[in-house]
Amino acid sequence: MRLPAGLRRSLVVFMVIGLAILYLPLLLIVLNSFNSSRTFGFPPSGLTLEWWQKAAGSSGALAALGTSVFAGLFATGIALILGTMAAFAVQRYRFFGRSTISFLVVLPITLPGIVTGIALNATFTSVLGPFGVGLGIATVIIGHATFCIVIVFNNVQARLRRMGTALEEASADLGATGWQTFWRVTIPGVRGALIAGALLAFALSFDEIVVTTFTAGPQVQTLPLWIFGNLFRPNQAPVVNVVAAVLTIVAIVPVWLAQRLSGDSVSSRI
Amino acid sequence: MSDSRIAKATVDEFEHADRATNSAAVPQVSLRALRKTFGAVTAVDGIDLDIADGEFFAMLGPSGSGKTTVLRMIAGFEQPTSGSVFLGGVDATTLPPFRRDVNTVFQDYALFPHMTVAQNVEYGLLVHRVPRAERARRVGEALDMVRLGEHGRRKPTQLSGGQRQRVALARALVNRPRVLLLDEPLGALDLKLREQMQLELKAIQREVGITFLFVTHDQDEALTLCDRLAVFNNGRIEQVGRAEEVYENPATQFVAGFVGSSNVISGAAARAIVGRDGAFAVRPEKIAVAPSGSATAPGSLTVAGVVQDVVYAGSTTRIVVAGPEGLILTATVLNAHSPDGGVVRRGDPIGLTWHESAMRSITV
């Protein structure tokens, strides 16, 4: 489509402004992580790697990083299994309540995180508490899994729908049992969607804070919780900048990979 | 190894394959009172059909006539609402697809995109746990048979439409099925390639001796390929017979119009021309242009009319004539000597003549 030159120029300007608003603050975080001034005056008074060294030596930040990676991997694993099974059920079988199930699986992503957090907190402490369930890393993982499942489910479901059933029929026709067909034809067909879904789910889990706040309990500290806790302590502020810069990079890589792998707009399905 | 020797080896294997239940008397496929409804729609409405061993059989009909649904019920992808499917004399009605000794060449080929050509062909052997060495040998033979021996390591996306079609054929034949089902196998190919593949299909069918059952809406293709055919309409079979039988003796008005084209003479026109009530079909190529004023030959019928249209079609010319009682007749004249079927112009008075034996009484 050919646009008038004037319109094109102004659209370019708008786009540059929009992207600048999105990404300049992030750039500032990265820049400040090298800023030698503790008060982050702009422009930086000098560049230093001191904060990065401090962050690398900060046991609190490293432990939080470990917790976040652990929780993210576990929540993603649960989401891969349950999300794939749900997507398969909804796309390949006809049963009573099929569309309701599909709706209920997707709903958690649209619920405000604070509602999910309060609801899970109430369930874990007042209902399951008496049975010896306490808030901890396990409850964080469960909380994260509620929205990670949605990502995997949506990705796999869309891929299954686009694949159709022709390849699975061909496989059965050639003599493969349902199980053989699943492993040899269906899973390879949705592999890209699985990887993309897993990467996105991990990225979401990695920077989640609202649900985490309500499900973590006092002993567990994920990286976002650690940042939030240290943000207003003047001593720690430079280290927080470093951690935030790391977090940005860790979150960008999976999304970028997921976009390349799935080939179609992944972000529209989050 | 030369092509013919491979072909010979393949034939031997097929002949030696154990087919205890496969005596000539038992049809490879038997359908009994087969019905399939989808909600309120009846797709297949009571089909009885026997297909003998080694036949090249066509199910011909317009889209929506139920032929593909019948094929899918034979393959096991659809469960009949009622009726039975017998394969080699054994009731297979409720068997899942992977327990049926039939293989399918799908309309869009349905090749596995994540596998190479050789892996696609090997798939049926792999899931049947055929030993590795035998798998490799049979994949090689199957690929040679469809002249794709050099392309085993390619992915399906790197092949042309005709090559994919042949991969689908090799993949389906490598299992040595009792029956090969083909769903509009040549529908996606352009005309030249289609004609070439028709010849290849027929040659391969002769080589392997397996029963081929194919679905098509293309009457030329059905007549070219098959030994026998069934003409489908509205979920029922209108006529079953050898290709030339069905063409020469269409049983119903639908068959007369769908298999080739026909002039149907009925009602007042039948009374005026044939001299009795009923419906009659005459093929356009059996109608000749009668020199005006010439006497009607004994045993022939003549109709006088006015030329409505002259359509030049290369090897033939179609002359459309308005006859008595609103009857429109089409005559096809071979352009063997004259370029336009003689010097016929729109609006000319013309006489058409055909022998009574060329005319068939049909049911409307």
TrEMBL record, chain A:
<keyword id="KW-0813">Transport</keyword>
<keyword id="KW-0472">Membrane</keyword>
<keyword id="KW-1133">Transmembrane helix</keyword>
<dbReference type="InterPro" id="IPR051789">
    <property type="entry name" value="Bact_Polyamine_Transport"/>
</dbReference>
<feature type="transmembrane region" description="Helical">
    <location>
        <begin position="101"/>
        <end position="124"/>
    </location>
</feature>
<keyword id="KW-0812">Transmembrane</keyword>
<protein>
    <submittedName>
        <fullName>ABC transporter permease</fullName>
    </submittedName>
</protein>
<dbReference type="InterPro" id="IPR000515">
    <property type="entry name" value="MetI-like"/>
</dbReference>
<keyword id="KW-1003">Cell membrane</keyword>
<feature type="domain" description="ABC transmembrane type-1">
    <location>
        <begin position="65"/>
        <end position="258"/>
    </location>
</feature>
<feature type="transmembrane region" description="Helical">
    <location>
        <begin position="12"/>
        <end position="34"/>
    </location>
</feature>
<dbReference type="GO" id="GO:0055085">
    <property type="term" value="P:transmembrane transport"/>
</dbReference>
<feature type="transmembrane region" description="Helical">
    <location>
        <begin position="130"/>
        <end position="153"/>
    </location>
</feature>
<dbReference type="InterPro" id="IPR035906">
    <property type="entry name" value="MetI-like_sf"/>
</dbReference>
<dbReference type="Pfam" id="PF00528">
    <property type="entry name" value="BPD_transp_1"/>
</dbReference>
<feature type="transmembrane region" description="Helical">
    <location>
        <begin position="193"/>
        <end position="217"/>
    </location>
</feature>
<comment type="similarity">
    <text>Belongs to the binding-protein-dependent transport system permease family. CysTW subfamily.</text>
</comment>
<feature type="transmembrane region" description="Helical">
    <location>
        <begin position="237"/>
        <end position="258"/>
    </location>
</feature>
<feature type="transmembrane region" description="Helical">
    <location>
        <begin position="61"/>
        <end position="89"/>
    </location>
</feature>
<dbReference type="GO" id="GO:0005886">
    <property type="term" value="C:plasma membrane"/>
</dbReference>
